[in-house]
């Protein structure tokens, strides 16, 4: 018991040292700056899926493969390069009925494949979704709006976050009759900004009109700063 107690004490001391090891031993203040910019999307990615259930595995496979092949062929006719299209391998699984008593009964096979498409011109998005419909695709998993100059907007958001951190620091220092004499530490982790996720929807929901082009993307950033005080 004594050894366990000593181990707990040592562990607690080490944990405490880890918390305070990075704390400066001079007057300071810490702020977090936030920045964001709004951008109009000019491109998109969408993922569609075809799912079919038939009595045999081979029939399910053939049906799904034909839909995907037709869809890819029509996209190629529209001038979409192979680099902007990717499709998954076939997934197939048996389907069972589970009665209240007795053994499960095999009722068919479900096959599925997904296709991801990058649309370089947002105005073409609805057209490509219509092509998916006409090809036999029966699910849209998501539509993601993007901007081609992501790095430019991210830098604008970062600069706004820096200005926000500086403004907060000056206001706080002034409120306590102090002055900022420099920056001691800057902590920054590049944000993982995800494109706008419009919605998941069934393919029978055709009435999307031009809502995609009416959307905006908000790109955010943040920075943590520790300032020296006089």
Automatic annotation (TrEMBL):
Keyword Transferase attached: no
Signal peptide range: 1-21
Domain of life per record: Bacteria
Gene3D superfamilies in UniProt: Protein of unknown function (DUF541), domain 1 (3.30.110.170), Protein of unknown function (DUF541), domain 2 (3.30.70.2970)
Entry coiled-coil feature ranges: none
Protein's GO biological process: DNA damage response
UniProt keyword terms in alphabetical order: Signal
Keyword Signal recorded: yes
PANTHER family named in the record: PERIPLASMIC IMMUNOGENIC PROTEIN, SLR1258 PROTEIN
UniProt-recorded name of the protein: Oxidative stress defense protein
Originating species: Vibrio tetraodonis subsp. pristinus
């Amino acid at each position: 018991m004594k050894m366990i107690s000593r181990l707990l004490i040592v562990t607690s001391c080490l944990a405490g040292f880890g918390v305070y090891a990075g704390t400066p031993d001079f007057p300071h203040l810490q702020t977090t700056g936030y920045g964001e910019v709004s951008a109009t999307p000019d491109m998109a990615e969408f993922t569609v899926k075809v799912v079919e259930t038939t009595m045999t595995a081979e029939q399910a496979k053939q049906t799904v493969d034909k839909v995907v092949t037709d869809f890819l062929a029509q996209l190629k006719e529209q001038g979409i390069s192979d680099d902007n299209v990717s499709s998954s391998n076939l997934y197939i699984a048996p389907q069972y009925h589970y009665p209240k008593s007795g053994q499960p009964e095999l009722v068919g096979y479900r096959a599925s494949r997904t296709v991801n498409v990058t649309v370089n011109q947002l105005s073409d998005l609805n057209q490509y979704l219509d092509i998916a419909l006409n090809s036999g695709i029966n699910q849209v998993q998501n539509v993601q709006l993007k901007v081609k100059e992501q790095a430019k907007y991210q830098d604008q958001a970062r600069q706004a976050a820096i200005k926000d951190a500086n403004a907060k620091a000056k206001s706080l220092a002034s409120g306590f009759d102090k002055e900022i004499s420099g920056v001691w530490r800057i902590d920054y982790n590049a944000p993982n900004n995800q494109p706008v996720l419009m919605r998941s929807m069934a393919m029978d929901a055709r009435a999307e009109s031009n809502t995609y082009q009416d959307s905006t993307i908000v790109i955010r950033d943040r920075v943590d700063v520790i300032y020296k005080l006089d």
